[in-house]
């Protein structure tokens, strides 16, 4: 009987990383760009026969050489990765997998949250995680006919975001405003949440929510087993919208407002999928043209680029006074320094 060992693969170990890439390619998987831990299973002769990785609280890029399948190696991989996650303080674990592999994870105690046709299943290791999130959402004590949902990252909060929220508030009795709470942005969540609430304080029909781990962003979505870039975007959108529909049904949301992005093919595809999928669930989708200031379309990417270029005067006409005031504080100056040191501030 073969003896196997499992160990961490360091980013500096080029030989083992080439072996990981080769094994993933052999098993029809591309290495995810977002990984913060990778391990390998090796046989007695130090050949790589299995690999798996993590990114934040998710498991990714799991593969076992097809010549060694049926030997319990995938179970060994998952056990090791779960132990690693627990050691670094992550007890709530997520996994995205092909439909054909979903039962394997369900047998290990994972619960399905959502799926996209025959492409992708999203699971978590807490049986009531998503249902607990739904039950914790703040609901209105009154019944309203027109209830809207808006989801924003606000990196940082701009006049464009404020314009989108204003439109939703003016056209609806109640607005559920979701702020992306995953800290994958140059402006941390605590700051983004504060700037959103300060920039929308004039509207009295908003209920604020954190998205938790249940609204997917491009920085965390797994694309490693989807071969086509457009398919990745469409699948990401469909999964995100399936989750939003369940949230909308809980809160009685019957419309969603999103900003148009005329310069982003990714967002254009995303919005079209959103419009189609929401209509199937009887939820209206309003794609709102972007606010323009002096014929200049306002976007968070432009604001970050101006900050990187040390041009705060270009930022001023694109943000509410509360956001600009924050940038002049010591905390704001620290974020400005971080942006100026960052290589990538524009997201496509």
Automatic annotation (TrEMBL):
Reaction catalysed by this enzyme: holo-[citrate lyase ACP] + acetate + ATP = acetyl-[citrate lyase ACP] + AMP + diphosphate
Keywords: ATP-binding, Ligase, Nucleotide-binding
GO terms for MF: [citrate (pro-3S)-lyase] ligase activity; acyltransferase activity, transferring groups other than amino-acyl groups; ATP binding
SUPFAM superfamilies: Acyl-CoA N-acyltransferases (Nat), Nucleotidylyl transferase
Keyword ATP-binding listed: yes
SMART domains assigned to the protein according to its UniProt record, in alphabetical order: Citrate_ly_lig
Coiled-coil residues: none
Residue span, N-acetyltransferase domain: 1-140
EC number: 6.2.1.22
Function: Acetylation of prosthetic group (2-(5''-phosphoribosyl)-3'-dephosphocoenzyme-A) of the gamma subunit of citrate lyase.
Protein name as it appears in the record: [Citrate [pro-3S]-lyase] ligase
Taxonomic source organism: Secundilactobacillus malefermentans
